[in-house]
Design a protein that fits this description.
It is a single chain. It is built from two helices and twelve strands. The radius of gyration is 18 Å and the shape is globular. The protein is of the alpha+beta class. The strands form four sheets. Strands 6, 8, 9 and 10 form a four-stranded antiparallel beta sheet that branches.
Length: 179
C-alpha cells in the first residue's frame, strides 16, 4: 500500500508534464486554427506590441522603430529592443492582418501610436501601417504586417521561425526567409 502511494506523486508529475507539452503544441495549433477561420473577428489581441527590453511585450509608443538585428538566422527585422519580428503567410502582402483572437495571443502584432521609424539597416520607404479591426495601427514592412512570437524571450530569439510552416522572419529587403 505504501508503495502505491509513493508512485502517485510521480504519476501526477508525469500528468502535468504531458499536459504542459500538449498545451505548447496546442498553442501553435490554436494560432493556425484562428488564422484559418477566414475573415478577422471583431475582437483583437490584448497583448501589446513592442518590447520593454526584458523580452516581454509592452505598449508601443509613437515612432515605433524597426531595424535589422543579428540572429542565428542571419540579419533579420527586429524592433528597437532587438525582439525578432515575423510575417504570416496567411496575410496578403499589402493587405490587412488576418491574425486575431487566439492567433494574436500567440503572435502579438507590432503596434504603433505614430509613424514607424526605420532604425539601423531598415529601409524607411518599406515601412508602413495597416489598421486593425479594433482601430489599432499595426506596423508593416514591404507590405507585410509584422508580429512578435510570444515564446521569444529575449532579443535575438527566433523561436517562431517556421512555426506551422507559415511564420517567417524577414530580411532587410522585406523578403521572408524560409527554412
Amino acid at each position: 500500500m505504501d508503495q502505491a502511494r509513493g508512485t502517485r506523486p510521480r504519476l501526477r508529475t508525469r500528468h502535468w508534464a504531458v499536459a504542459g507539452v500538449a498545451l505548447l503544441a496546442l498553442s501553435g495549433c490554436a494560432a493556425q486554427a484562428a488564422s484559418d477561420a477566414g475573415a478577422p473577428s471583431a475582437s483583437t489581441a490584448t497583448t501589446e506590441s513592442s518590447s520593454d527590453g526584458a523580452g516581454s511585450p509592452a505598449e508601443a509608443g509613437s515612432g515605433t522603430a524597426v531595424q535589422v538585428g543579428s540572429t542565428s538566422l542571419g540579419d533579420v527585422l527586429v524592433d528597437q529592443a532587438g525582439m525578432t519580428l515575423y510575417m504570416f503567410d496567411k496575410d496578403t502582402q499589402g493587405g490587412p492582418s488576418t491574425c486575431y483572437d487566439q492567433c494574436a495571443s500567440a503572435w502579438p502584432p507590432l503596434l504603433t501610436d505614430g509613424a514607424p521609424a526605420a532604425g539601423t539597416g531598415a529601409d524607411d520607404g518599406k515601412l508602413g501601417t495597416v489598421e486593425r479591426t479594433d482601430g489599432a495601427t499595426q506596423v508593416t514592412y514591404d507590405g507585410w504586417p509584422l508580429y512578435y512570437w510570444a515564446q521569444d524571450a529575449k532579443p535575438g530569439d527566433v523561436n517562431g521561425q517556421g512555426v506551422n510552416d507559415v511564420w517567417w522572419v524577414l530580411d532587410a529587403d522585406g523578403t521572408p526567409i524560409h527554412g
